[in-house]
UniProtKB/TrEMBL annotation:
Necessary for normal cell division and for the maintenance of normal septation. Residues 36-211 form the EngB-type G domain. Coiled coil: none annotated. Its cofactor is Mg(2+). It comes from Brevundimonas alba. This is Probable GTP-binding protein EngB. Belongs to the TRAFAC class TrmE-Era-EngA-EngB-Septin-like GTPase superfamily. EngB GTPase family. GO terms for biological process: division septum assembly. GO terms for cellular component: cytosol. It comes from the Bacteria.
């Protein structure tokens, strides 16, 4: 993981404590808001904890709505952080219950967003720390490499692991992406429930977007 100074961590904490609001959900590429702010996007399998992570970053319980039904996020959802950047929640993948035509529709929407968004600074690909990278993640990794969008792996739910296991999964994940051209060579371990890794992720986002206080 990248090293951050205490000042960087504090500035990032202040930034993410500022007002965050839901802007809109887009089901078609034509509906996307104007690309006038830096954006970072979150992607991952259904039920990987995207909503919990986004809510944890901004210190709000219900900004991004978690669902008991995996694959409920079928739009590209935009959140505004104090008019300085947008957090973007991409449709989940790996749905078991959705039809193939439905899956393709929303995967295509995600791909269109990745390819054509000039203000997109990085995608954070969330992976459940209990499982690490799986075959189902390959399609997402391939799509990100193809789109030539910088992406970084974020391990979620680290609090569910025994002591020392997170470091092993982190090392294995880093090795697994070592030859992927668009992958950023650092893996952040997080727990939205415990707050672990969130200060570093906030600082990483702030550094990546170039947003200043």
């Amino acid at each position: 993981m990248d090293d951050f100074t205490p000042e960087e961590l504090e500035q990032a904490r202040i930034l993410f404590a500022r007002p965050a609001t839901f802007v809109m959900g887009c089901a078609k590429i034509e509906q996307l808001p104007d690309p006038d702010l830096p954006e970072i996007a979150f992607a991952g399998r259904s039920n990987v904890g995207k909503s919990s992570l986004i809510n944890g970053l901004v210190g709000m319980h219900k900004l991004a709505r978690a669902s008991n039904e995996p694959g409920r996020t079928r739009e590209v959802n935009f959140f505004d952080l104090d008019g300085r950047m947008r957090l973007v929640d991409l449709p989940g993948y790996g749905w078991a219950k959705a039809s193939k035509s439905t899956v393709k529709k929303f995967q295509d929407l995600g791909r269109d967003y990745l390819r054509g968004r000039v203000t997109l600074k990085r995608v954070y690909l969330l992976i459940d720390a209990r499982h690490g990278l799986k075959k189902v993640d390959d399609e997402a990794l391939d799509a990100l490499d193809l789109a030539a969008v910088s992406y970084q792996i974020v391990l979620t739910k680290a609090d569910k692991l025994k002591k020392g296991e997170a470091e092993k999964v982190q090392a294995a994940t880093l090795k697994g992406i070592s030859k992927r051209p668009a992958a950023y060579p650092a893996v952040i371990v997080t727990s939205a429930e415990k707050g672990e890794g969130l200060p570093e992720l906030r600082a990483e986002i702030m550094r990546t977007t170039g947003v200043e206080l």
